[in-house]
Amino acid sequence: MSMNKGQSKSKNSNMDRSPTNQSTGSSDSHNGSIVTDSRRKLTGLRKNDEERPTVTMRELLTELKNADHTNQTSPSSVASTTPRSQESKQYKERDSVVMALINSISTSDEEGLSRQRVLMLAAKRYANAIESNPDDYDALYNWALVLQESADNISSDTSSSPKDALLNEACKKYDEATQLNPALHDAYYNWAIAISDRAKLHGRTKEAEELWKQATKKYEQAVQLNWNSPQALNNWGLALQELSAIVPAREKQTIVRSAISKFRAAVQLQFDFHRASYNLGTVLYGLAEDTSRTGVLVIGNELSSNELYSQSAIYIAAAHALKPSYSVYTSALKLVRSMLPLPYLKVGFLSVPPVENPVAPHIDWRRFKFVLNHEGLQQIADSWEYLEAWFDALRLVYTIFARGKTDVLAGIITG
């Protein structure tokens, strides 16, 4: 029994480890057991990061396309007539190579050709801005986004070298932009996406391992600057999961546990974030498979494979309830439905003597919550990890009820 994994970036980026590969829109892709949400965030040429509105690449391309006619008949608004410094000349020489890379991209369909013309215009626009002012971090950031978009425009049938080169140049621009303005959290986020795309081009190699490590660090920096970003946390978890598939076995457990914590944090920030919920379910499923195969309890030496399977089923069911139209969720739910915990027959509290003193007076007895289910009498939440999973599940179920989808939820639980 295998589960899928997927990642999304600004367009479609796939972190694939298993069979299913399904696009979920301009910012999502499902590829195996995980779903990512990594939209590239664009800014215009703004004064500071706090005032910077987030726009999409499509909106920027539309703006540039509309400006194309103006630029053909009037001087560029960003071109400078001031004497160029030595630094500007160095930029121009280096960027001529980048321009040649963008110009070399060929596509067969008319839409792709039109898109590439607009991207070339954008590249020239930002190159002129940097030539005029090498400290323009906004122009560097937006140019990096254009390079990323150009890399996406390369056909999958062609060699990966041009795409890797463009992504590498985008990473350099992000590096320069963040050196000038270390508070650009969107730049770290998109930088991480670019590095992840490069890692996927290198397969399961040592170079890919290093790139995945770099990507996790950039996601960490993005989250440190903007902690309220479930998308960054979700993608951070995905990068960690990809890394766990490459590193030596002795390092895998620590990395997987870290990925779980990132997905869980994303769900706790946004309870209806179905991608993070699904990803958490699938990473727990993979952990359950490993535990079942090796017989070694992995999380705090407390959770068995059956408990992990049960947690996995809860998150996958919640993701499906939030987005029942996603076929990848439907397929996953069919695999784990039987692992969902059954309703309790009885819930209540019992007072028991402390373990260290079974004959203690009644006043010293402790009150614990117990449930009676199909397996027997059990104490609730034997571990903090298990307790967290139930808290997350309760929040998700509440969100589903609040959205008026009780019929969907009931259908999942009853099968």
From TrEMBL:
Ranges for region Disordered: 1-92
InterPro entries in UniProt: Endomembrane_traffic_mod, TPR-like_helical_dom_sf
Compositional bias segments (type: Polar residues): 1-36, 69-85
Record protein name field: Tetratricopeptide repeat (TPR)-like superfamily protein
Organism: Artemisia annua
Lineage summary: Eukaryota, Viridiplantae, Streptophyta, Embryophyta, Tracheophyta
